[in-house]
Design goal:
Layout lengths: L34 H7 L14 E4 L8 E2 L24 H14 L3 E6 L9 H14 L4 E6 L8 H6 L4 E5 L5 H4 L5 E4 L2 E4 H21 L3 E8 L8 H10 L4 E6 L9 H5 L6 H12 L16 E3 L10 H6 L4 H27 L6 H6 L11 E5 L16 E8 L2 E9 L16 H8 L5 E3 L5 H9 L3 E3 L7 H14 L6 H7 L1
Parallel strand pairs: 1-3, 3-4, 4-5, 5-8, 8-9, 11-14, 14-15
Antiparallel strand pairs: 1-10, 2-6, 6-7, 11-12, 12-13
The structure holds FE(8)-S(7) cluster (CLF) and iron/sulfur cluster (SF4).
Iron/sulfur cluster binds next to strand 2.
């Protein structure tokens, strides 16, 4: 049998002594990006952390087939409450997808991006994927187009991606070592043959790396997604991060494996465990020295609709879409007005940052410099339904944003999903109350900031060592988080072990 010829020249030399953190581009630093790059990312909820508070995306589920098999995927499983890639409720034709996107874009002025991300691989279904993009580009050219692919068929589609004016491509790269890859991918379908094991992984890796280089050469922004699989690629992803950064990827998104037996995936059925929140954060922190890390990914369904973290797909089933009457001109005007408003707010913030003498007094208070004493970092949970402010009731929150507050400022490090405490059911079926489960999900956080909170959750959170705080309703998240951190610092709650030792 002919062995496939593998080009390993994609592998760059090992890491030098370069301090890569100084070469990295953080999404938080969109303000310092060159203009053309900033224009590409500042309205994209995945490529800019700041944008995800304001802008929505939707996924058109037009791509049913896949050309590889991942051990964490089973596209047959669908549940309306499920939120993970590969899962959809309704497969669409390109015509339906365009109709649905226009309906969503008319109802949600924050909508700025259409992505094709499944339920299979968009580039294993190129006719359906590109027909969707063409149809939408004709009718709503203001919507950005985005693709997420496993990369196997990427090199052969680069020209077409560029022709369709696609500025954002995500490649899922879980490894650069075929021995690791053989544990993640049982097979690929390549040149009309099914190829298994290490040889399959070699081809996939080579195609991914070639595709990444070709995209970067065309000026297309590349985000790399990696699934963290404990015991399989956890030790390896730092090297993946280093290599994709060297090759010019814009952003790296390390996501936790989702593996439950009921999903029917290989990993789910064989008991492969998912990483803990601490393991995920540790790896993201370790990779961050090499490149900008995405911390706000919600592992969206392939038919997700709305702001990241919310799923409004049920409002836009095809029967509902068909019944909608839409004024497309008015819808476009609403979207442009929304973007102009966010853009004006951003400009005002930038101007503020560069002109301290003109800062209003109340803003000076919020941003007052941190006293020059040591204070340990603190994790805080934040309830928000968007716009970058604290505007969610504790009991209505389906997820909490997790911020780390320290001398360096407030940094989003992830999110934790919860059951809806106010939904009425008292227990989760395992004897644990919904509130208890929510409190468990917030483990490690010392404070939870929300717009309002009831007496019962307040006292139970306090008893669990998490201080509720409802004083910052409608405040900017980062300002509120830092105000709370400074308060703790001033009350002497944040002494570091080193400072304690010196005092002793
Ligand atoms: Fe969709 Fe992906 Fe485009 Fe975003 S999602 S195709 S880049 S528009 Fe975003 Fe969802 Fe994470 Fe993907 S939060 S899973 S990173
Ligand atoms: Fe599933 Fe995507 Fe992997 Fe294909 S590439 S098997 S759709 S996770």
């Amino acid at each position: 049998m002919n062995q496939p010829v593998i080009d390993n020249s994609y592998l760059p030399p090992p890491a030098s002594g370069c301090n890569r953190s100084s070469c990295g581009v953080s999404t938080d630093q969109a303000a310092v990006l060159p203009d053309d790059l900033r224009r590409k990312v500042e309205d994209h909820p995945c490529y800019s952390e700041a944008a995800h508070h304001h802008f929505a995306r939707m996924h058109a589920a037009v791509a049913p087939a896949c050309n590889i098999q991942c051990n964490y995927c089973n596209r047959k499983y669908d549940c309306a409450n499920e939120s993970r890639p590969g899962v959809v409720s309704e497969l669409l034709t390109p015509e339906q997808a365009v109709k649905k996107t226009l309906a969503v874009a008319a109802a949600i002025p924050q909508m700025s991006v259409l992505g094709v991300a499944g339920p299979g691989d968009p580039l294993a279904n190129p006719a359906r994927t590109f027909a969707t993009f063409r149809g939408l580009a004709e009718k709503a050219p203001d919507i950005k187009l985005c693709v997420s692919t496993n990369g196997l068929a990427l090199p052969e589609h680069i020209d077409e991606l560029a022709r369709h004016n696609i500025e954002h491509v995500t490649i899922t790269i879980n490894c650069v070592d075929p021995d690791v890859g053989a544990k993640i991918y049982p097979w690929i379908f390549w040149k009309n043959r099914r190829i298994r094991g290490r040889a399959a992984a070699e081809i996939l890796i080579a195609q991914q790396q070639k595709g990444l280089e070709m995209l970067v050469a065309r000026g297309i922004l590349v985000k790399v997604n990696s699934v963290l699989i404990p015991g399989v690629n956890d030790q390896h992803l730092k090297e993946v991060s280093r290599i994709v950064k060297v090759k010019g990827a814009f952003l790296h998104n390390v996501m936790p494996l989702i593996a439950e037996p009921e999903h029917g995936t290989f990993y789910g059925l064989t008991g492969q465990r998912s990483p803990s929140a601490e393991e995920l954060k540790a790896l993201q922190d370790a990779c961050e020295g090499d490149m900008a890390m995405m911390r706000h990914c919600r592992q969206c369904r392939a038919d997700a609709v709305g702001l990241l973290g919310e799923d409004r797909g049920a409002e836009f089933t095809m029967d509902k879409v068909e019944a909608m009457k839409i004024d497309h001109e008015a819808a476009l005007a609403r979207r442009l007005a929304f973007r102009a408003k966010v853009s004006a707010e951003r400009e005002a913030k930038r101007a503020l940052a560069h002109a301290p003498s003109s800062v209003p007094i109340q803003v000076i208070k919020l941003h007052k410099p941190v006293p020059a004493v040591e204070g340990r970092p603190v994790l805080m949970a934040v309830a928000s339904k968007g716009s970058g402010v604290i505007n969610e009731h504790f009991g209505h929150a389906r997820e909490f944003l997790i911020y780390e507050a320290s001398h360096a400022g407030a940094r989003l490090i992830g999110h934790r999903k919860t059951d809806l405490y106010c939904a009425g059911s008292d227990t989760c079926g395992d004897g644990e109350s919904v509130l208890e489960r929510t409190i468990r999900a917030l483990e490690g956080c010392e404070t939870v900031l929300c717009s309002r909170i009831g007496i019962e959750p307040w006292s139970k959170l306090e008893a669990a060592g998490i201080q509720p705080n409802g004083e910052h309703g409608m405040a900017r998240i980062e300002d509120a988080v830092m105000a709370v951190w400074r308060g703790m610092l001033e009350r002497g709650q944040l002494a570091t072990p080193a400072a304690e030792r010196r005092r002793a």
